[in-house]
């Protein structure tokens, strides 16, 4: 015969609280390979930005300032996106489609970094710092294009019709209502 202690022990024993994970990679929004690429994007953008900032004088400052803007933007926003996607913080932000945001940001940043690197390479003072900044700009461009390619290969283009993916993988009530009334059937 079981004692009261053994019967109630399994249901009333104090359970250890769940440990909160602050780092969730891989997740539904970011796998390990793309996480590593995003870290590389941040590092390359940082080096390009620092090298450009150290340039003391410029004859034509427009290309330098454009490169500065793009490299700084890439550094800060890629770091922010990386932190949001690799931690539970993305669940607290009111964004429903992280894949679309990630895809759009990565593609725009790849194009902007490519343009800024070309413009700065075409018109700079040919100092070692400027040439190094351009080199790291092109390396960052390659990293963004690799990230873009891996995203398309693994998840497709999220903006295309019929390729809507939600981060939380739950069906939308609107789509359930539309599908329930039979209007989407083909005759």
Automatic annotation (TrEMBL):
<dbReference type="Pfam" id="PF01284">
    <property type="entry name" value="MARVEL"/>
</dbReference>
<feature type="compositionally biased region" description="Polar residues">
    <location>
        <begin position="178"/>
        <end position="187"/>
    </location>
</feature>
<keyword id="KW-0812">Transmembrane</keyword>
<keyword id="KW-1133">Transmembrane helix</keyword>
<feature type="region of interest" description="Disordered">
    <location>
        <begin position="162"/>
        <end position="187"/>
    </location>
</feature>
<dbReference type="InterPro" id="IPR050578">
    <property type="entry name" value="MARVEL-CKLF_proteins"/>
</dbReference>
<feature type="transmembrane region" description="Helical">
    <location>
        <begin position="35"/>
        <end position="52"/>
    </location>
</feature>
<feature type="transmembrane region" description="Helical">
    <location>
        <begin position="64"/>
        <end position="89"/>
    </location>
</feature>
<feature type="transmembrane region" description="Helical">
    <location>
        <begin position="133"/>
        <end position="152"/>
    </location>
</feature>
<feature type="compositionally biased region" description="Basic and acidic residues">
    <location>
        <begin position="166"/>
        <end position="177"/>
    </location>
</feature>
<feature type="transmembrane region" description="Helical">
    <location>
        <begin position="101"/>
        <end position="121"/>
    </location>
</feature>
<protein>
    <submittedName>
        <fullName>CKLF-like MARVEL transmembrane domain-containing protein 6</fullName>
    </submittedName>
</protein>
<dbReference type="GO" id="GO:0016020">
    <property type="term" value="C:membrane"/>
</dbReference>
<dbReference type="InterPro" id="IPR008253">
    <property type="entry name" value="Marvel"/>
</dbReference>
<feature type="domain" description="MARVEL">
    <location>
        <begin position="29"/>
        <end position="156"/>
    </location>
</feature>
<keyword id="KW-0472">Membrane</keyword>
């Amino acid at each position: 015969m079981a004692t009261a202690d053994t019967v109630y022990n399994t249901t009333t024993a104090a359970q250890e609280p769940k440990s909160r994970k602050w780092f969730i990679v891989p997740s539904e929004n970011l796998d390990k390979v793309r996480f590593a690429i995003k870290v590389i994007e941040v590092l390359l953008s940082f080096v390009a930005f620092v090298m450009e900032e150290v340039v003391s004088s410029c004859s034509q400052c427009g290309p330098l300032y454009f490169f500065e803007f793009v490299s700084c933007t890439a550094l800060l926003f890629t770091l922010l996106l990386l932190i949001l996607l690799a931690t539970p913080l993305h669940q607290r932000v009111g964004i429903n489609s992280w894949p679309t945001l990630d895809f759009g940001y990565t593609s725009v940043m790849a194009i902007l970094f490519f343009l800024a690197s070309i413009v700065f390479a075409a018109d700079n003072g040919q100092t070692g710092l400027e040439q190094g900044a351009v080199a790291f700009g092109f390396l960052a461009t390659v990293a963004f294009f690799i990230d873009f390619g891996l995203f398309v290969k693994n998840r497709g283009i999220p903006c295309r019709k019929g390729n809507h993916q939600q981060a939380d993988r739950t069906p939308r009530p609107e789509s359930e209502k539309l599908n329930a009334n039979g209007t989407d059937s083909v005759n």
